[in-house]
Amino acid sequence: MKKMLQKLLVAMMCLIIVGSLVACNGGGGGGGGKSEYAGTTIELLHFWVDADDVLQDIAEEFYDETGIEVDVVFSPVASHLTDLNNRIQTDDVPEIFTMWPGPTVPPYIESGALANLSDCKWIENVDAATLSQCVYSQGGELYIAPVNTAFMGLAYNEQIFARNNLTAPKNMADFERILDVLKADPEVDYPIIMGSDCLANYVYLSCLSNLYQDMPDFDEQVNAGTTTFGNEAMTAVYEKLYIDWAEKGYYNWETCVSTDRMSKAAIEFLDGNAAIMRIGGWDMSILNELNETGTTYKMFPFPAEDNAGSVLAAAGEAFAVSAYATGAKKGAAMEFLDYLMKAENNAKICAAIGSLSPIKGAEIKSNPVLESLSAYLDQPTRGWTVWPVPVQNILGEAYDIYDAKTIEAKKSALKTFLDNMQNAWMATLEE
Amino acid sequence: MNSVKKRKSFKDFLTSDGVAQAVFLIPAYTIFTLLFFIPVLTSVYYSFTDWNGISKETNWVWFKNYAAMFTNPDIFNTIPVTIYYAVLNSVCLIFIAFFVALMLNRKSRITTPLRICFFLPMLVSGIIVGFLFKEIYSPVISDENMGTLNRLLTLVGLKGLTQNWLGNKYTVMIVVVLTGVWNQVGQTALIYLANMQSIPKELYEAATIDGAGYWKQTYHITWKLISPSLRINLILLIINSLKAYDMISLLTGGGPGTATKVINLWIVERSIGGYEVGLGCAMSMVVTIFAFVLVTVTQKLLANRGATE
Amino acid sequence: MKVSVKKIKKFLVSACMVPVMAIMVFPLYLLVINSFKTLREFFTNPLAFPKSFYLENFKYVLEKQNYFKLLGNNAIILIGSMVLLVVVAAMAGFVLGRSRAKIMKLLYSYVVLGITLPTYIMLIPQVKLIVGLGLKNTYIGMILYYVASGMPMAIFLFNGFFSSAPRDLEEAAKLDGCSLYRTFFQIFFPLSIATIATLVLIQSIGVWNDTTMPVLLLRAEKRTLMPTLQAFYGRMMGQGTRWERIYADAVLCMLPMIVLFFASNKYLIQGVSEGALKG
Fold first, then answer.
1. Which residue has the higher pLDDT, A380 or A307?
2. Among all residues of chain C, which has the CA nearest to that of A287?
3. Do A285 and C240 touch (CB under 8 A)?
C-alpha cells in the first residue's frame, strides 16, 4: 500500500514538472527576441467591431515575439468617449486606446491625458497630409497616431452610366449635364439619392471643391472676422444644393430626414432607382451586404467649377497612448504602438475597416472602388471639417428653405440660416 | 411587592425603543446617504466649477454656469419644448390609462389576454422602444422602401396620409408622445387598477339600485375614489417626463431642428458632448428644483381633493 | 334560450378590445419577426412574415457575447438589489410610518426628495464613490447602486402603506411582549406583500434594462445584457447599423423578463391589487 502511494506521488510530481515545462515552452516558444518589458500586461481599448478579430490576432503575434500580453477590449462607438472619461476619473485608464482626430481630441490633450508621440520612429512612414491632420494645432506636437485614411465621395452606378453613355464628370457643368441625362432616364427615379447625414456631408463635400479651392484659409478668415460664414462662396454652395437642385428634381429632399438614411438609400442605389449616392469607405461593407442585383459602382469627388473636384481624405481614426501609464506599462504600450504602425499590420486593420492606409508600403488588396477615387488625389485634399461643433451640428438642417414656397422666400430663409451659423460660430469664439 | 431588577443586557439595549428604531433606519439611510446624497452634493459642487469631465483639476467659477444657462439663447426653445412634452405626455397618460384600467377591471374572458397585451410593452427598455419605433415611423422613400406605419396606411388605401412622421415638426411631438404612451400605459393603468379593485362593490350596487348608468357610476364613484393612485401617477409622470432621455434621443435625436429637444437632451449634449460637465450639473440642479416645486404643488392640490371625498 | 342585452353589450365591448390589443402587441410582433430576417429583407419587407427563419442573426449575437453568463449576471444583480431594497426600505418605512416623532418627517422628506433628481448627472460622482469604496467591478457595487437609486420610491411606498396599517395589531404585539424586530418581521412585513409586489414591478424593469451603469462599473465578464445592444450600432445611428442583429439581441435581452412576467402574472396582479395603494 505504501509503495503504491509513493509511486502515485512520484508520478504526480513528474506530471507537474513536465506540465510546467511544456507551459513555459509554449509561452516562450514563439522564438524571436524578447522585449525588456516581457511579462507586462497592457490593455487596448478600441471601437472597431469589424477589426476585433484582426486585432486579437495581431496581439497574439506580438505576444509571441515580445512576451508582452495585450488585452484587446472592444467598446462600442456610442459610449466610447464616455467610457474613457469615466475610466480616467477612476484611475483605470487603458494604456492604449482609439480616438477620432478632430475637435474631440484637444480637451484630452489639454487635460494631460495623452502621451506625447512626437519622437516616434514610425512618423516618417506616415503620409504627410494625414499626419498633419493629427498634429495638435497649438504647439505642433503629435499626440495621436493615425490608423487609416478615410475618404468620402460620390458613388455612381456603373450600369446606369454605361447605358446612358456617361462617364465621371470633369467639372460642374459636365456634372449638371449628366444629371439632366439621368433625369430623363425612365428607369431612374431621382438621379441622386440622399444618403446618411446627406445634406450636411454634401455641403461639406461641395465646400471642398468650390469654397476651399478658392479660399483655402476660409476657417481662419471667419475666425479673424475678415469674412463671414455666409459669404458669397458659401451662399453659392447652399443655393446650388438646397434650391437649384431641389427645384430641378435632381433629388427627393423628403428622403433626407429619415431613419437609417444610408442603408435605405443604399437599397435605392443598388436597385438602380438612383444613380448617384454619397458614400464613405465605412459604408462599403453594408453596400456589399445589401447588394442583390450585382450592381457595381465607382466613385468621383464633388466636382468643382473648372476641375474634377477635391477628395475628402482624412485621418479617420487614431491610436493614443495614456499619459497616466508609467514605467514598464508605458514602455510596453509604446512598443505595441510601434508594432501596430508597421505597414503589414496597419494594412490588415485598414482592410478590415474598409479604408486606405496612411502608411507607406501598406498594400491593401486591390479594391476598384478605392482605386477609382485615388485617381483624383492630385487635387488638394482636406480632412474632416474643423468648424465649431455647434456649427457642425446644424450644418445640414436648413429645412425652412424647403418649407418656403417661392424662390425669393427660399433665398431669404437661406440668408437667415447662414446668419444663424455665423452667430453660432462667433459665439464659440467668445467662450 | 417584589421588584425585579433587570440586568441591562445587550439584547435589552437593542430592543429598547429608540435603539431598535435606529437599527431599522440605519441600513437604508447609510446606503442612501453614501450612494445618493453625497454624489448629489458632489454634483452641486461641480456645478460651481468649470470641470470638463476629463481633467483632474477644476476651477471654482461661482455662478457662471447658472448664468450661462439662462443667457443661452437655446433655452428659449428648450423650455417650451420640455413643458409641451411633459404636459402632453402626462395628460394623455392620465386619461388614457384611466380608461384602460376600466377595461382591465371588467369580469370577462378577454380581460386576462387584455392585461397581458397592456403589460408587455412595459417591459421594453427605452432604447429598444426608440429604435423599434424609429423604423416604424420612417418615411416613404420609394414604393418598396418605406417605414412600417406608412406601409400599413398604403395597404389599407390611405396612401395620402403617409408622411415623414418624425421629420415633420408638426407631427413629431405627437408621435413621440404616442410612443411614450405605448410604453407607459401599462404601468400607469396598473396603479389605477390596484386602486380600483379596492373600491367596495357595495357602492356600485347601491348606485345601480339608485338607477345610475355605467358612466355616471364611473365618474362619481371610480374617478373620485382613485385619488391616491392619481396622485402617485401624476407625480411619476411629471418626473419621468422631465427625466426623459433614452427614447427621445433614439427616436429623433432632438427632432427636426430642435422640435423635440427636451431639456435632458440639451443637458447631455452640452455637458458630455461639449465637455462642460460643470454646466451640466448646474442645469440638472435647476431642473430638479423645478421638478420638486411642481411635485409639491401637485401634492397640495390633490391632497385637498382627496380630503373632501 | 334568450341572450340578454347585457350579454350582447358585454360581447361587443370585448370585441372592440381586440383591435386595441393588436395595436399594443404589434410592435413586439414586429420585433420578433424582424429578428429572423436578413438586412435586405428587413428594409424591403418589414411587415411580412420572414421568408425563411434566418437564424444567422441569433447565432451571430450568441457567439459575440457570452449570453448565459451575462444573463446570470443580470439575474444576480436584479435579485440581489430587489431583496436588499425591499428588506432595508421596509424596515425604514415601518419606523417612519408609525413613529410620531418630528424627526421622522424630516428623515422622510430627506429621502423622498430624491425622486425628483435626474440621475444622469450624478453618474460620475456615484461611480467615483463606488470605486473609492473598493467595489469596482463587483456585484455588490452594482447592487448597492440600484438600492440607493430605488430608495426614494421604496420608502415613499412603504411609508404610505405602514402609516395606514391598523394600530391594533401593533398594540396586541406589544402586549404579547414582542420586540420591535418580532413585530415587524412576523406581522407587518408579510402584510405588506402588496406594496412589495408594486415596488418590485416598478423597479425591476429599470434595473434589468439599465444600460449606463453596467458599462461604467463593470468589466466585460461581469456585465449585463442590455449594453450589448450598443455593439451593433454603426458608426453613427444611421450609418451601418445592423438592425437585424440589434433586433435579435433585443429579443434575447427581453426574453427572460417576459418569461418571468408570464410566470408571475397571476400572483403579481393579485398582489398589487389586493392591498391597494395608500399614498
1. A307
2. C240
3. yes
φ/ψ of B34, rounded to 5, equals -65, -50
**Is residue A301 situated within a structural domain?**
yes
Say which DSSP state B35 is in: I
pLDDT classification of B26: cutoffs 50, 70, 90 = confident
Nearest Cα to Cα of residue A323 among A77, A97, A112, A153: A112
Residue at C87: amino acid letter: V
Instruction: Tell me if C142 sits within 8 A of C134, measured CB to CB.
Output: no
Higher per-residue confidence, B96 vs B3: B96
Select from 3.30.300.10, 1.10.246.80, 1.10.3210.10, 1.10.3720.10 the CATH code of C79-275.
1.10.3720.10
Which of A318, A264, A301, A302 minimizes the C-alpha distance to A286?
A: A264
Give the length of chain B: 309
C-alpha cell at B257: 431642428
Residue in chain B lying closest to A190 (CA): B142
Listed by start position, the domains of chain C span: 79-275
pLDDT in tens, B39-64: 888 888 888 888 877 777 778 887 88
Shortest CB distance from A259 goes to which of B138, B256, B257? B138
Interface with A, mutate which of C64, C133, C235 (most A CBs under 10 A): C235
From B53, B131, B232, residue closest to C246, measured CB to CB: B131
Alpha carbon distance A341, A353 (integer Å): 15
pLDDT digits (tens, 9 = 90+) for A55-77: 999 999 999 988 889 989 888 88
User: With 50 as the cut, is the pLDDT of residue B279 above it?
Assistant: yes
pLDDT tens across C142-174, in order?
999 999 988 888 888 888 788 777 777 777 777
| Contact between residue A353 and residue A51 where contact means Cβ atoms under 8 Å apart | yes
Q: Phi/psi of residue A96, each to 5°? A: -140, 135
Which residues 48-87 on chain C approach chain B with CB closer than 8 angstroms?
Answer: none
C39 contact A CB<8A: yes
Residue A207 shares a structural domain with residue A339: no
Average pLDDT over residues A266-293: 84
Number of CB atoms found within 10 A of residue A303's CB: 25
Q: What's the mean pLDDT when you consider all of chain B?
A: 81
For residue A119, the enclosing domain spans 37-148+316-355
CATH number at residue A225: 3.40.190.10
Cβ distance of A273 and B164 shorter than 8 Å = no
Test B264 with C118 for CB contact under 8 angstroms: yes
Quick one: pLDDT at residue B12? 65
Residue C278 to residue B275: CA distance in whole angstroms: 44
> Look-up: residue for cell 504627410?
A128
Q: Where a domain ends, among A355, A385, A407?
A: A355
> Strands (DSSP E) along A266-412, which ranges?
274-280, 297-300, 312-315, 318-321
Of A74, A86, A196, the CB nearest to C216: A86
Domains of chain B: 1-47 (no CATH), 64-136+173-308 (1.10.3720.10)
Contact by Cβ (8 Å): C111, B257:
no
pLDDT band (50, 70, 90) for residue A181: very high
Is the model more confident about C173 or about C266?
C173
Handedness of CA A200, A203, A209, A211 (dihedral sign): negative
Grid coordinates representing C83? 431583496
Residue among B55, B134, B139 whose CB faces A111 most closely: B55
C43–A267 CB contact, under 8 Å: yes
What pLDDT is recorded for position C46? Answer: 75
- The tally of CA atoms less than 13 A away on the side-chain side of residue A335 is 23
The predicted pLDDT at position A173 comes to: 93
pTM attached to this predicted model: 0.79
- Contact predicate B220/B207, CB 8 Å: yes
Q: Of B152, B147, B128, which Cα lies nearest the Cα of B137?
A: B147
